[in-house]
Specification:
This protein is α+β, with helices and mostly antiparallel strands. It has a single domain, classed as YaeB-like fold (2-Layer Sandwich), CATH 3.30.2310. The protein has two helices and four strands, in the order αββββα. The protein has helices at 3-13, 69-85; strands spanning 24-25, 34-39, 42-48, 53-60. The protein has a four-stranded antiparallel sheet with strand order 1-2-3-4, covered by helices on one side. Strand 1 (24-25) and strand 2 form a beta hairpin. The longest helix is centred in the last third of the chain and has 17 residues, at 69-85. It is globular and about 30 Å long. The chain starts with a helix and ends with a helix.
């Protein structure tokens, strides 16, 4: 990715610090904690937890969403969440 694109993505994502629910629920999954921001032609998918926001993936919007994304995100973040709660 070019440096201008990376800077635009970072700037777009910074709003999540104050407004973590500002993105839309990813329509392919309908899971309230899996949300996205649009930065045409890219989708920035993130997971919204009670205490954290984690960027899951950034990719071009014309690509199909991986059907295993929701499950793999849940599995990868579960151990991290348990560590943060303790």
């Amino acid at each position: 990715m070019g440096s201008r694109l990376v800077a635009a993505i970072v700037e777009h994502v910074e709003q999540l610090e104050l407004y973590p629910d500002s993105g839309w629920v990813v329509p392919e999954f309908g899971t309230p904690s899996l949300r996205e921001l649009l930065l045409e032609p890219h989708r920035i998918v993130y997971r919204r937890d009670e205490h954290a926001v984690s960027i899951v993936r950034v990719w071009r919007s014309e690509r199909l969403m991986d059907s295993g994304l929701s499950e793999s995100v849940e599995q990868r973040l579960r151990p991290r969440q348990q560590r943060l709660v303790r």
